[in-house]
User: Fold these one by one.
Assistant:
Number 1:
Amino acid sequence: MSNRVLVADLSRHQGEMVTVKGWVRRTRAVSAELAFLVVADRSGEAQLVLSGSSATTLPSLESVVEVYGLAVTSRSRAFPVEVQVESMVLLAPSESLPFPINKPELEVGLELIDRFRPLCLRHPRFQRVFRVEQQIILHFEQFFAGQGFLRVSTPKLVATGTEGGAELFSVNYFGDVAYLAQSPQFFKQMLVGSGFERVFEVGSVFRAEQHKTSRHLNEFISLDIEIGFVEDVNTLMDMEEEFIKSLLPSLHQEFGEAIKCPSEIPPIPRLALEEAQSILEKEYGRTPSSDGNIDPEGERLISQWAEREYGVAAVFLHSYPRPIRPFYALPGYANNTLTESFDLIFRGQEITTGGLRQHSLPPLLQSMKERGLNPEKYEFYLQVFRYGMCSGPQCQDTIFKV
Amino acid sequence: MSNRVLVADLSRHQGEMVTVKGWVRRTRAVSAELAFLVVADRSGEAQLVLSGSSATTLPSLESVVEVYGLAVTSRSRAFPVEVQVESMVLLAPSESLPFPINKPELEVGLELIDRFRPLCLRHPRFQRVFRVEQQIILHFEQFFAGQGFLRVSTPKLVATGTEGGAELFSVNYFGDVAYLAQSPQFFKQMLVGSGFERVFEVGSVFRAEQHKTSRHLNEFISLDIEIGFVEDVNTLMDMEEEFIKSLLPSLHQEFGEAIKCPSEIPPIPRLALEEAQSILEKEYGRTPSSDGNIDPEGERLISQWAEREYGVAAVFLHSYPRPIRPFYALPGYANNTLTESFDLIFRGQEITTGGLRQHSLPPLLQSMKERGLNPEKYEFYLQVFRYGMCSGPQCQDTIFKV
């Protein structure tokens, strides 16, 4: 028996005897002496032809089979090459399915999708989600590693939350209480100040938000970067935009039509939050909320507006007010009631949050106090600021100039 | 002022005015009018020359400075190019250090290393640990992605442990109890059976082992792979060996001397656990333990033996007895009191564990019962075996053969 051939490679094996392994996705008995099977493996789907007495022994759908046969040109449009089966082995039978999974769309509700998750994942639409995710993550890593970033893995079991204790899962840590990290923020900054300057992480984060909306997740994979010696929040937005633009061509090439991904986009507009609020007021008659923040509906509308005005359903919002940003956000250079921070909104969802950090210890301590945080509990984090943080310009001091 | 130049790139800027930013690692005042500074950035170290009145204003060690000056050829052996400083800005001062970090070795105990972690990480020896880790992980991802593996991220908050509840951290999950995943095992298998066939993960795992040994960790990053349609445990060992061999040349090139990493190694010997026990008995006079397992000292000795006999301090041990392997381990083809499993032992430490899985539902259920596990609690995992698992040969059944 020959080595296994993936169905995507069948065309390179026409006229050869091949072994194919996979899941029986569809069966069609044409007569007592002719049947067609579609078998799926990780590379795609292939058509198998059973003739003679073998056409009467069709395995149940989703059974796993190994077939051996001749790869030949087919008259089928969907499958230019098919396999004339000479022998078939049942590697693993399938029980009868709770619902069909061989339709173009999986026509079942979320409850069944959850309950039969491994089965539903065999549907090409679900498979694609994972493949897109892989492509984004691997590109992210290559992109930033190529720019001198170090890939790091920060602790997930922590003693203190990033934002001061809200929305943390607590863990029984040998009788003590520990928490699941809601962000790698502190550790990223510590690593930047530890001399690495540029770090990135692809890792789990946890948020104890009891929810049922698409804007909340208890557990997700966060793509994080952190850099030192940055003076302008536009540098960060430039970097993110450059990353996105470098990602699109390969995503478009592989999944373009299926996920409506273009190969290039116009520049993403950048708006101060206040400007965005004015636009929402003028264009959509919405009054800004009292804390100056933008709500989910506002994020949806400003994405619509960006699509109409700039041809891209994304917008960088910057200059968020201090009270709605974390204690470590750097106050605005021009207006210190604001921050040098930004969010990237895409199709109505915040997909990134970023900003310059307060790297000077006295104002950082002051900011913690204002929020009722006890600096003693954060000494593990604050220490790096005592021994030379690779800051932006906010705490610079000329030693001499010739 | 020119753009920043990394110190590793200074030689390409000789004769130019450059800006350098970094940490003041060493200072040496030669006279009232001449001083040398060594500044470190993420790329390495550079020598700065202060002359005239500027030589009297030396910043404290580990302060972060930005200097501007002329890059010139130096007579120093360590630094072929140095910067004649014209101006220096203090970006962030450092308090006085608890201990010197500019020695070839950091001469402090573990307690101080823990307490001053961000500071200690600036030492090149600690920096290297992170850089080696990055190189291994990125290579791992590229290697397996290149062989048709999908990068996945499995849940870390789980309802049931992989091995049946031991050594799990418990999490308060909105009033219920959840656990931190001690391994992605179940999810890897489910994804393989969901049609992906080959998956890998780089992710956090958690073990509630109260410890103070180098063989235990509460939290670590696990590099995992899982494949379907595998029939021989040697295939898995081949794959791992191929991965290791592909990794060594680049590790050797970048870190070889510092971490004693060769660019190639002889084939790694493969021993049944029983053979290893005989060797330990004959060569080192050690009697095997009653459960047939090998202990830490045995792992250390068998690595020594492999180094002596095969020129590599690593050994694959296989054919572990069933009682000391998980319930999902496939029983041995030739002897069903053993398993088709292996560990890779390197310098006395188990660095990998692997094996073929039981993919047929009835014996899998039987194995769970024997260990007192309630299959109902594992239905989320067992489901994939009902609907066609991409198995090895253990449950095959010929449908027909022409």
Number 2:
Amino acid sequence: MEDNNKPKVSLISKPANMLKTVYTACRTCYSADYPINIYNSTDDTEKMLKLVERVISSGHYSTIEHIQVSFAISNVSRACTHQLVRHRHMSFSQKSQRYVKEKGQFDYLIPPTIDKDPVLKQKFIDFMGEISNKYQEFVEAGIPAEDARAVLPNATATSMVASLNLRELIHLANLRLCSRAQFEIRMLVKGMCDALVTEEPWLKPYLVAKCDRYGYCDEDKSCGRKPKLEELVKS
Amino acid sequence: MEDNNKPKVSLISKPANMLKTVYTACRTCYSADYPINIYNSTDDTEKMLKLVERVISSGHYSTIEHIQVSFAISNVSRACTHQLVRHRHMSFSQKSQRYVKEKGQFDYLIPPTIDKDPVLKQKFIDFMGEISNKYQEFVEAGIPAEDARAVLPNATATSMVASLNLRELIHLANLRLCSRAQFEIRMLVKGMCDALVTEEPWLKPYLVAKCDRYGYCDEDKSCGRKPKLEELVKS
Amino acid sequence: MEDNNKPKVSLISKPANMLKTVYTACRTCYSADYPINIYNSTDDTEKMLKLVERVISSGHYSTIEHIQVSFAISNVSRACTHQLVRHRHMSFSQKSQRYVKEKGQFDYLIPPTIDKDPVLKQKFIDFMGEISNKYQEFVEAGIPAEDARAVLPNATATSMVASLNLRELIHLANLRLCSRAQFEIRMLVKGMCDALVTEEPWLKPYLVAKCDRYGYCDEDKSCGRKPKLEELVKS
Amino acid sequence: MEDNNKPKVSLISKPANMLKTVYTACRTCYSADYPINIYNSTDDTEKMLKLVERVISSGHYSTIEHIQVSFAISNVSRACTHQLVRHRHMSFSQKSQRYVKEKGQFDYLIPPTIDKDPVLKQKFIDFMGEISNKYQEFVEAGIPAEDARAVLPNATATSMVASLNLRELIHLANLRLCSRAQFEIRMLVKGMCDALVTEEPWLKPYLVAKCDRYGYCDEDKSCGRKPKLEELVKS
């Protein structure tokens, strides 16, 4: 059974030759050969992977900007997308609440702490119904969608196409898979990473929380799972 | 009497020598002289203005990126900030609904078409009260603010510090002062432009809707105030 | 016979479904349907093209950011790449003069006004030989490549992998295909556009000089081929 | 005596109230109070510093983007500016070699390994003279500056106005003060940092090489002064 209370993510676009393009970019910096020759002369996946991994580990992230991927995202709350669109190296096309009128009950996401308590959950669902009625009242009174939406809650579901390059995706994963990130955006970003890793498994080690990548935590209020950098440096 | 149903904007930071810095940048491109000498040798406002205006008119906008200004913004709806933060060349620090709990009735903005109808307005105000009660119910039941906020509406007021350079401010004004932009963001951007123009009046001609700057309209659904470019070119 | 005095450009990476991805992004903004359903339900090229063209014409360029393309570029001068890398929405991986030592005569580009005059051309070629000798002298004296390169000229050929999204490519074409742009970067950008148009012919109308797109010229020193906007607006 | 073989840097523009603006931005995220009230109610430098330092240390760098500073830079080589302009979050206005003709001997920078060897240094100076003569020959033959410059070397001095926000300046310092960065760009960035620290000493701890900030080195070829992160994590 599908879980209707979580974001839905599909990878809809990526170049066919991701690793080869990144490998060509890495080699171009240090080679007298033409990039097109580098590109055409290589098909040894293991060799390509070895170089690319060394380059990413050294922090030379510009080489992985050459690859961009696109996701179709739906059933994600407006609270969550207000967070997501703060990532300014991403491109977004989002369902407009100004131009798309809600017909009948709008879709929404139930926050986890409310979802797990049957009484609060029912109270939440009922209230979403009340908001929907109020929205329709305003629409029927002739208020345009762009103004009636003022009553719609943060929980309202929205959709978007979102694109970003590998450098930004790794950055996004490192930040938003942290247990301090809000639950919904963690699920969303996990969905994005999982969809890509299915097709490009070599990316898995980078698409993790920052503490899992670096071995330490730099959050002011750490969850304690990993040591702080100060502790490592002092030891 | 102050209007409580519109965004409040204050200019809190700008460099003292805006025009001189931009002028130095413009001259540096075409001069054999050192920029610091250009900077130190000029105080003729009229001469500086004349060059800067010519450069901006030619579309060489990179020269005005050197100036950044910061605004303190409050009493603006979350619907409006979700639009504003889509401007990716801006910097934002926004009041967090995760970490700042609403105490008592939250502030909100009433959309203009509702505000002008006394019956609908009262209905709107009453419903904001109901939402506030529901939010407090969830908070009192132990739900953390970051999840209780799921019921808060698009109308909820928020605050931010927003910074942007002159190139982006002109772009923002050109787009968002258009009559096709939503009412609230037009008021907000007008507030930003007015606050800056008070101190730097030479910027006034650029901080207008795109049609007022270029003399034509490129919107798919034009308001008709200005001709479409096709009409001008054909004539 | 191949012309060795011009940039070489190959398109090495693009997503297979460019138009469909852009179409899905455009539709997502105005549809109640999920983006993945929009994506899966459309294969009518003509219908997709019609919408995409209308959206681009209205200036809603964010929808075409979802597509990024990568080019392998070689035989382009360092003077030209110093211009190109000023486009800050692009990603670059460039051959390093610090780490890649020139062995024997370095490759170079001959500027057009010199190339067409046999006497000046020979003088230029001879001087490139002298510079090469001087570079090798410094290298043989133990000077590292990163310092010996101080004598290498702007004409020195370099290579890079360059990636950019469609919005930036259209912007790049509009600016750099203008007759006021330097000859070499015009050839380079033309090479990029031609390589893409071969595979995606629907992009051709956008990948032109700005005056060809808009029907007017905004350059301070116009070539006169198109009227200035002021002339159109006044008429 | 002034050293003529190094970049000259002057801070020409910064907002007067840097710390207060950053403090207001930090507080806005976690406060129910209006940003303008936060701004107006604080003048306790120590209190402001304490918060700002905690926020920067936690990696919440967006709060320091609100401050942008501008530098007048001269006597820096074109090799160095080709590196510098790769920082895409900066704004640049650079002396054009297309439009500014070199009259007489062009200025240039002598690389350090050549500068310290009197014989090589003289050879370098002489060759700069030969290049200058060749440039003038082409100019006198009617070749426009934009093409004659093809013979000008990487060592040629240039000028620019460069602006960047504090987040990017810290990033720039962390990368380019590393001993693996090229000598000239290290001097240039050090000049920028020194100029700012003179007026805003609280920024000093951040404007250092990345290893000095984090206590470990992530370079593939480390200078060995600091341990690698792997060593710290394993211990």
